[in-house]
Design goal:
It is a single chain. This protein is of the alpha/beta class and about 375 residues long. It has 11 helices and 14 strands. Helix 1 packs across helix 10 and helix 10 crosses helix 11. The chain starts with a strand and ends in a 6-residue tail after the last helix. Bound molecules: NADP nicotinamide-adenine-dinucleotide phosphate. NADP nicotinamide-adenine-dinucleotide phosphate (NAP) binds next to helix 1, helix 2, helix 5 and helix 10.
Length: about 375
């Protein structure tokens, strides 16, 4: 079953442009793609597969003939325009936080709970939410361990790229780097803190009662919803680093069933959406630069909790409950645009040529 036009709402932003790149890479013809943005972008154009697409302002009337509408805009824009897209018959995948915790809206990572798309209350209801990028990378990295051994608790520290805050975040870091190259300085224009040569607590608002920032709250709530485990223990610390693209995470996971290193490595290695980068001799592990532009999430630096090793000895037969690892994932791709396009594939509303290619992330 397929397919109308694919509309990208927010086509001028970093996620929207990545969605266009993926559609073009996978052979969707320009006439099947509609680029929408705000009034500010009226009359502009975006690059598409060697040509350009006109950008038109998104209005309630923009969705006639659209099979899949991928929203890559603000939560406010999604709240006001998504009902019109659904009413016009489109399946909507929304990248914003507007509907993620709405009980009637599936929150989907295809490799984890793709079965919800098309289930009652799923795509037929017209709206699927794309999780927060950090949540997708975290649960994507841990899903094979959850399936094989169960997961009791997660500690995670994030090292998040500035593009996670959109084009304006990238512009801030680039302006500061350029100024440094000219032996001058550029004051922060978007973030409160300088990006260059700096690391700072995530720029989302901090809840005065819990001390959690918005990004940390999203990781907790969304992980529990996606894994269907309302008591899952998740302890995040979210930090912005001077990286343009791809988020990295230092994760410690506590398993339900203690496992051998060979078992944990096999579980990670068998997951088609992951790539294990773990060469201790060469000190070769996941980095954001290695993850940038890739569909897979990189995982590595795998090791058991050293204190468990100290109390229980070592050896290939030893089992451990707590494991640490590093993950790096391109948050514009698997953390946003690719995940949304995969969902469109599961819903059967992509142009036919694309459907087979995006059901599950392929190992390249
Ligand atoms: N960046 C990430 O890593 C990431 C990851 C996961 C999810 N997300 C979510 O994805 C969404 C887009 O983020 P982004 O990083 O791509 O932001 P961005 O670079 O700032 O782009 C925002 C886009 O939204 C458009 N827009 C704003 N108001 C609009 C309106 N009323 N109607 C139609 N379009 C409107 C903008 O159009 P103009 O250019 O015309 O202003 C622009 O195309 C956000 O909800 C964000 O939370 C982002």
């Amino acid at each position: 079953m397929s397919s109308g036009t694919v509309a990208i709402v927010g086509a001028t932003g970093v996620v929207g442009r990545e969605a266009l790149t993926i559609l073009a890479e996978r052979g969707v013809p320009a006439e099947k793609v509609r680029a929408l943005a705000s009034e500010r972008s009226a009359g502009s154009s975006v690059a598409y597969n060697g040509t350009s697409l006109p950008v038109t302002p998104a209005t309630p009337e923009s969705f006639a003939g659209v099979g899949l509408a991928i929203f890559c805009a603000s939560a406010d824009a999604a709240r006001s325009l998504v009902p019109h897209a659904i009413a016009a018959g489109a399946v909507v995948v929304d990248n914003s936080s507007a509907f993620r915790l709405d009980e009637s809206v599936p929150l989907v990572v295809p490799e984890i709970n793709g079965g919800l798309v098309g289930a009652p209350g799923g795509a037929r209801a017209g709206l699927i939410a794309n999780p927060n990028c950090s949540t997708i990378i975290l649960l994507g990295a841990l899903e094979p361990l959850r399936r094989a051994f169960g997961v009791r608790a997660i500690d995670v520290a994030t090292y998040q790229a500035v593009s996670g805050a959109g084009q304006a975040g990238m512009d801030d870091l680039v302006a500061q780097a350029r100024a440094f190259g000219r032996d001058s300085a550029a004051a922060p224009a978007f973030f409160r803190e300088p990006c260059l040569f700096n690391v700072f607590s995530h720029d989302s608002a901090v809840d005065p009662d819990t001390g959690l920032n918005g990004e940390e709250r999203k990781i907790i709530d969304e992980s529990r919803k996606i894994w269907g485990d309302p008591t899952l223990r998740v302890t995040p610390t979210c930090v912005r680093v001077p990286v343009l693209r791809a988020h990295t995470q230092a994760i410690t996971v506590e398993l339900e069933r203690p496992a051998r290193e060979s078992e944990v490595r096999a579980a990670l290695g068998d997951a088609a959406w992951l790539r294990v980068v773990d060469d201790r001799a060469a000190n070769d592990f996941p980095t954001p630069l290695k993850a940038s532009g890739r569909d897979e999430i990189l995982v590595g630096r795998l090791r058991p909790d050293p204190s468990e090793r100290e109390t229980s000895g070592a050896g290939p037969a030893m089992v451990f409950r707590r494991w640490s690892l590093l993950a790096s994932g391109d948050q514009l791709r698997k953390g946003a645009a690719l995940n949304a396009i995969q969902i469109g594939g599961l819903a059967g509303v992509l142009p036919a040529a694309l459907e087979e290619q995006v059901g599950v992330v392929a190992r390249s």
